[in-house]
Every structure is written in C-alpha cells, then in structure tokens.
Design a protein that fits this description.
single chain; alpha/beta; eight-stranded parallel beta sheet; three-stranded parallel beta sheet; about 15% strand; binds phosphoenolpyruvate; binds magnesium ion
Amino acid sequence: AVLGQTTDQTSDDQHLVLLGEDVSVSDIARFDPTQLVAIVCLQGSALSHSAVLARALGIPAVVATGPIDHIKNEDAVIVDGDLGIVVLSPSQSTQSAYATIVEAARSFDESLLADKDLPAVTKDGFRVQLFANTGLLADVSPGIKRGAEGIGLYRSEIPFLAHEAFPTESEQYQVYHTILTAYHPRPVTMRTLDIGSDKQLPYMNIKENNPALGWRGIRFSLDNRAVLVTQLRAMLKADIGLGNLQIMLPMITSNAETREVAAVLDSVVTRLQAEGEPVTRPDLGIMVEVPGVIPLLRGQKEWIDFISIGTNDLTQYLLAVDRTNPRVSTLYDHLHPAMIQTMADLAKTAETLQLRVSVCGEMAADPYAAVLLIGMRFPALSMNAFSIPRIKALTRGLTVEEAQICLTDVLTMDDPQDIRQRVHATLVDAGLDHLIYRGASPEPSEVGSG
Ligand code: PEP
Ligand code: MG
C-alpha cells in the first residue's frame, strides 16, 4: 500500500508492504498487523519509532531510501531489512534466491525456539532475565511464544497513536487488562505516555523546532494532569486481582518530576480505594534515557524501586545525534565509546545504590552490544520479542569471564568500528558468530551471507 495512493481498506488475504515518504507509528497502527509484511519509507532511521515498531512486529523495515514516488500501488517489491535494500519488480531468480534466504531464517528462528523454556544463564552461572518490549496487542503473543519472562517495557503511547482522540479510562483499562492478564503472573512494566518527538498524537497538533528536546514524555504528562490521572487509574484498575503491574516514567530529568508523579500516584491510589476499588500501589521506576538524570540517581531512590536504561534516547542525547535523522545516522551508534563507558558506570551505580536495573533499548537486542552488557553484569535485558531467542542463545554460549575480558579491552578503545571488531572476535572464539544478524558483521567479506 503506497500511503496517499490507497484507502485503508485492504482485502483479507493481502500481504501489505507499507510504503510512504514518512510512515508514522499512527500509519502503521491503522493497518491490520497480521497483513503487514514490510515497511519502506523515505524518511527516518533505524531507531525512529516506525522502525522500532516494525521490529516489534517481526517485519523488515527499510528507511531513508531516497525517492520512491515512481513506485505504484500493487507493484511487487522485496524488502531486505538486514541489508537495508528494496528490490523493485524482482526477477524470478531474485525471488527464488530470497525465498531460500527467508526459509533459512525461518528454520534458524525455529531451531532457537527449542530452548524457549531454558533460563538465560551463562556457562559460568550468571543469570540474565530476558523481557519483551511491547506496545501493540499484536506483539503480546510473540513474546510469550519466545519465552519472555515478562514485559520490560510496554510503550503505552502506541494505542494512543492509533486512536482518533484520547482513549477513555475504560478503553485504556481494556487494553492494559488484556496485557497484564496475558503475562500474569510475570511482571509487566507499563510506561506512562511517551508522546512527542517522532510520536506525535494525530489529534494534538503540536509544532516545535526541536521536538526531541521539547514537550515529550513526562513533561507532557505533568502539564496534562488529567491525562496522567486517567492513565494511572486505568492501569491500577486493570491490575486488580493480578498484582503484576509496575509503572515506569519516561524522560525523567529531575528529582522534582519523579517526586510529583509519585505524589500523583499516591493520591490516585487513595482516591480509588475511597471509591471502593481494591487497588494496590505498584512498584514505580524511571527510564534512564536523559544523561542529566544519571548524577541524580541517589536522590531518585527516595521515590523509585527500579530503573530501566533506554539506550535509544540515551545514545541520542549523549551524542547529540537525532535518532531519526538519516544524515547523521552513521554517527548514531550505541557502541560509541562514550555509551559503553556510560553503561558500564550505570551498571556499577545501580549495584552500589541497590537499585533494580534493566536495559530496554534496542542495544539489548544487538548481539555485539549484548556481549558487553553481560560483561557489565546487567541482570535484565528487555527487547523486541523476536530477538529474545537469539540473545538467550548468546547468553547460554558465553561465560561472564569471556564477556568481561572483551569489555576490559573495549573500554580502552576509542573507535566504534574497533569495538565492533573486538566483540566480533569474542563471538567467533565462543562459536557464536552464527547469532550475528545477516549484514551486521564488521567483516566486509561476510556482509550478505548467512
Ligand atoms: C529508549 O529510549 O531507549 C526506549 C526504550 O524508549 P523509546 O524507544 O520508546 O523512546
Ligand atoms: Mg525513549
């Protein structure tokens, strides 16, 4: 479906490639996720939210393609998300070559599923909990199917983006209750609304010069108390009789923000109890995704039970690189030495402060980064459901000692390419290079294989 050339009506048996100048999260949410097979757009980058959502659906996305206005509705295309290419009107031989690649990927994924119920534990006994990131109802069952131990990040804004207006308390309740029930008794970390930046509500019309530095996440919620209160009420009521809800706050930059939301949460609990609802106060945590909050964590502890590191935004704000801007996408790298050092420091800080910690950005799903995160001894990683089996196989095939030796070397390096090469050597030595995504290897000769 070429956006702008089509209505949203599609016949039931169609395989849809969604294609447009800019494919937003709202665009994706308008289509039936079971029909979507790929996303192609001129704008954006691998870390824009449309790409993150495509990963959650387990479908390829190719972004920043260059002109696409010559492509018509109904044209046949092959979308290769691993190599970042789109093949127009593919020949018979190209089609059969890709059929082989798709089948190999499918049977590889299937083979990894055999270990779905085994714990992610390194050969020397370090246990890593693996959680799923979700946001659509369609991505709930992929996580359960792949052995997710809970939801580490539920992006509550996704249903808001698919709506025509703010969803009501009871509409939100239905969605939250479905998710909490599906995962019960496993924990579900629901993040309060994180709109703004590249997740603009179609019914708000907010225009800003620097939206990534603007009115997003908790800033929006604190300025729109009624929206926050409605959301907290819906979450708390959805948790009645279950008790597996945790609440997490996005874009926290100051202690005052956390203190204020904690007070709002307390008053919502008290109010609901007065209304006769048997709600309990869930654990509260924050996203660590703005570098400025890192020195404040000791003080934050007064109000929070856990932190989760959002590496997508942390990379963007630490390196001052817009995560959605293709012009600077080569500068956006979670293996940048400043990110590695910051993550290593955060793991130590969390341990010193005895704060429960997880990593919930895309970094956790990257085998290269995962080796380093295990070397840092992060006890929990949350990622798109489709990456869980791969990261579990990686964890089970490695010792923490090997990962730490690699990390120690990496911490002396200043070039992301050298870092990638160094981790690559560790993966090869451990016999785990088959887990590297096709096209992600730093060795040019291997690109395109596998
Ligand atoms: C992050 O910033 O790393 C994150 C997990 O949140 P989002 O990608 O939704 O901004
Ligand atoms: Mg974020």
